[in-house]
Amino acid sequence: MSEPRILVTNDDGIESPGFRALYDALDEVGDPIAVAPYSNQSAVGRARSFEATVHEYELGYTVEGTPVDCVIAGIEALCPDVDIVVAGCNKGANLGAYVMGRSGTVSAAVEAAFFDVPAMAVSQYVPTADDEDFENIAPPKEAYADAADAAAYLVEESLDSGVFEQVDYLNVNAPAPDDAPERPPMVVTDPSPLYAMTADFDGDTIRLEDRVWQRMQNGDIPDENGTDRRAVVDGQISVSPLTAPHTVERHDRLDDVAATYR
User: Fold this and answer.
1) Could you tell me which residues come within 8 angstroms of residue 171 by beta carbon, excluding any fewer than 6 positions away?
2) Distance between CA atoms of 109 and 119, rounded to whole angstroms?
3) Which segments in the chain show pLDDT lower than 70?
4) Tens-place pLDDT, residues 171-184
């Protein structure tokens, strides 16, 4: 393939340093065009709008809408000749089976898959201390280097390799950045089944908390080798090959239940 045309989007907003890190890395291996949200759209999942205002931007376009809006707008109208969609780099990892429908970054890749366009979601793990508020952490562009480099490598190597004949999209997560001179190794993984959401009610307010992140920071996770979370905790770049829609297994017992409905 000649230089690939790459639709670049995210859910943190087009001005985020992770987006710029990804765009610049992809510019080394292809022809990127931005179609990204005007503002932060984290954790909106596959929400979409019925219409959205589009603005020209120095790198392409910005859309007053969700990551899914951006993918639909890009593939259908703004840059219909793209070869691949890459979403990221997200501030924070997107690990585990339960995030697939929640993450705006992953949802952008899922939406592209329904258009039969290869796609990739790219995230950077950002650990926090107990006294830190994740929303107030602002890693610089350089902190996303491992995630952005992995994305550029995968774009360069995967499109002609047959990878996307077997899978619809890749979920890529880089470990916490450190001062090691070598780039982290890359491993193929499955999404972790670990789920640790809790809810506490004090009579007026319900507080929802995802305790997976605290367990990650403490190293207290049961994830086995081969899972995405274990790879990231162990300092590896995780690449999970995924399909959209999710695989459905039909079985005789459900057929029997349906057949007896009156």
Assistant:
1) 94, 100, 106, 109, 120, 121, 123, 191, 228, 238, 239, 240, 242
2) 5
3) 1, 130-131, 179-181
4) 999 999 875 568 89
From its phi and psi, is residue 71 left (phi > 0), alpha (psi between -120 and 50) or beta? alpha
Name all domains of the chain by residue range, CATH numbers in brackets. Answer: 5-192+222-259 (3.40.1210.10)
pTM for this predicted structure: 0.93
Say if residue 173 carries a ligand binding annotation: no
Q: The tokens 């972790």 sit on which residue? A: 192
β-strand 60-63 against 54-57: which pairing, if any?
Answer: antiparallel
Measured CA to CA, the distance from residue 73 to residue 238 in angstroms comes to 29
| DSSP letter string, 28-44 | TTSEEEEEEESS--TT-
Residue among 110, 113, 31, 22 nearest 67 (CA)? 110
Do the annotations mark residue 90 as ligand-binding?
Answer: yes
What does the buried/exposed string (b/e) look like for 216-235 if buried means 16 or more CB atoms within 10 Å of the residue's CB? beeeebebeeebbbbbbbee
Tell me the pLDDT of the chain averaged across its residues: 92
For residue 12, say whether it is annotated as part of any ligand binding site: yes
